[in-house]
Amino acid sequence: MIDSVLLALFLPCLGMSAIFIVYMCLLWYATTHRPQIAMPSKPAREKGLSASELEKMPKVTGKELVMGSECAVCLDEIENEQLARLVPGCNHGFHVECADAWLSKHPLCPVCRAKLDPQILKPCENPC
Ligand SMILES: [Zn+2]
Ligand SMILES: [Zn+2]
């Protein structure tokens, strides 16, 4: 008889405690995790160009370079007959190998840090 009385008192107590603990946990969770709800925006995409994107970049010879003929990657001269890649937009030129090595890692011009937008390398699909 005493057993069942104790049980009758103990069980609701246990239930209340459990609810209280869960409630406290939720409260703690909400307070500690709240700052993370406002997720910081992802760091800017620092992915270089893919091989196919590199292929779309204009290729010129050294004598066609308008912004000087020194390659800023290897600091060597781009000879008149040497092939160079031209950065669309800023028209800076680099040896094909140098440009490919750099641009496959960084999507920007090594001279003026102009962002290389893969969009401008895509052929215009709509009649502009
Ligand atoms: Zn070079
Ligand atoms: Zn540039």
Automatic annotation (TrEMBL):
Main location: membrane
Key word S-adenosyl-L-methionine present: no
Domain RING-type: 71-113
Subcellular localization, as worded in the UniProt entry: Membrane
Database matches in SUPFAM superfamilies: RING/U-box
Gene Ontology MF term list: zinc ion binding
Listed InterPro entries: Znf_RING (IPR001841), Znf_RING/FYVE/PHD (IPR013083)
Entry's Gene Ontology cellular component terms: membrane
Transmembrane segments: 6-29
PROSITE patterns the UniProt entry points to: ZF_RING_2
Annotated keywords: Membrane, Metal-binding, Transmembrane, Transmembrane helix, Zinc, Zinc-finger
A Pfam family matched in the record: zf-RING_2
Gene3D superfamilies, per database record: Zinc/RING finger domain, C3HC4 (zinc finger)
Family per similarity comment: Belongs to the RING-type zinc finger family. ATL subfamily.
Name this protein carries in UniProt: RING-type domain-containing protein
Source organism: Acacia crassicarpa
Organismal lineage: Eukaryota, Viridiplantae, Streptophyta, Embryophyta, Tracheophyta
